[in-house]
Structure to design on (387 residues):
């Protein structure tokens, strides 16, 4: 097996950094960082493996590219891989990265519980592992976690549903509508730890309205297991929405007023199912309120057009920057700075985390949140495709 490049280089400073990283860093183990020249020399010889789940959702492409360019700018070599949402593919990619002697790993897992043996191998080779956006579960060997406040993402999704129905105003005050409203609920992939956080945040927000009868779920499908969509697949969501419409609404007087959807891909499947079952027009004209997540360009256009009601903007540029900062800290023999050391228990330990904030996107703040910040151009929003 190829030795690590920085050992081959034999630079004293590199060795000191490496040893500190191996020992897990921590107070007192920081080898007084050297000047920029030597630091540059160290990073040039180091490589980072970046494992992303899929290219079918543009957020992961953006995440991958942003992490890659952040690391490249710092002088690291980068091995960026996408795994087509296939668990064995991702496991092999990570095995290969370890065999190739990467110095750190940044991983957005497909299945949070499926990477145990890879993480054991990484630990044995003293490779720090940063869990990216999705927490890797059941392993001691996850060193850090960068993500968004996932519970709050769920709160925001449910809040936007309530705003769309008129039960709340955007400023959080009570809206004019009284209901009762018929809603249906969707959750994310059961093997993604985030899906439960989104669901819990959303359900804690909706439950009081369900308890008082302002919201009802005519299908009766209110359990996470019933609402979950494996691998976040758009077609699966479309099919489930069609099934729910057929079993509960078609041929009755019932109309659906809103759908809690935790991801834009699912939202578009749900919208397609609604449209092929007689719902049309815009939300203003009575189309059901459908929420989302990720500010995918196809959904941002639907929001601009008044068809999808909302999404949640998670600025992947900021998340990528955090992942790069954490990795850099590990490779310098330091501990990354966490802002949450309580929330993310992976079943074996609480993983120190850095959580970012997200925003609700409505039709009237697309410009401010997404265009002015340079996330999408006005032309992209207009066309619904990324350039
Ligand atoms: C991410 C979401 C994304 C979903 C589907 C989750 O782990 O946090 O942003 O919508 O995966 O890709």
């Amino acid at each position: 097996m190829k030795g690590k490049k920085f050992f081959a280089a034999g630079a004293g400073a590199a060795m000191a950094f490496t040893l500190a990283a191996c020992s897990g860093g921590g107070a007192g183990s920081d080898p007084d960082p050297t000047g920029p020249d030597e630091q540059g020399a160290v990073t040039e010889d180091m490589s980072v493996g970046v494992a992303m789940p899929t290219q079918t959702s543009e957020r992961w492409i953006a995440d991958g590219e942003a992490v890659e360019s952040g690391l490249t700018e710092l002088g690291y070599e980068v091995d960026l891989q996408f795994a087509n949402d296939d668990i064995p593919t991702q496991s092999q990619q990570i095995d290969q990265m370890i065999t190739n002697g990467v110095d750190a790993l940044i991983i957005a897992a497909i299945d949070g519980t499926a990477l145990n043996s890879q993480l054991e191998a990484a630990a044995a080779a003293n490779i720090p592992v940063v869990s990216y956006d999705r927490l890797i579960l059941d392993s001691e060997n996850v060193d850090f976690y960068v993500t968004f406040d996932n519970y709050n993402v769920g709160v925001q999704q449910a809040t936007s549903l309530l705003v769309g129905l008129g039960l709340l105003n955007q400023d959080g005050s009570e809206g004019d509508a009284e209901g009762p409203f018929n809603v249906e609920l969707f959750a994310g992939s059961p093997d993604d730890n985030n899906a439960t956080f989104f669901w819990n945040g959303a359900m804690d927000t909706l439950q009081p309205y369900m308890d008082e009868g302002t919201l009802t779920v005519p299908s009766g499908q209110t359990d996470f297991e019933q609402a979950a969509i494996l691998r976040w697949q758009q077609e699966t969501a479309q099919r489930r929405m069609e099934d729910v419409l057929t079993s509960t609404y078609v041929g009755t007087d019932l109309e659906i007023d809103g759908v809690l959807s935790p991801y834009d891909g699912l939202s578009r499947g749900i919208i397609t199912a609604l449209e092929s079952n007689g719902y049309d027009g815009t939300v203003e004209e009575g189309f059901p309120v459908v929420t989302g997540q990720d500010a995918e360009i196809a959904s941002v256009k639907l929001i601009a057009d008044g068809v999808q009601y909302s999404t949640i903007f998670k600025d992947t540029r900021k998340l990528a920057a955090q992942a790069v900062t954490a990795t850099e800290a590990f490779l310098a023999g330091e501990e990354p700075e966490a802002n949450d050391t309580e929330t993310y228990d992976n079943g074996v330990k609480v993983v120190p985390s850095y959580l970012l904030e997200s925003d609700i996107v409505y039709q009237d703040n697309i410009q401010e949140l997404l265009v002015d910040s340079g996330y999408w151009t006005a032309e992209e929003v207009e066309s619904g495709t990324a350039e």
Remarks:
- Residues 1-41 have pLDDT under 50 and may be disordered.
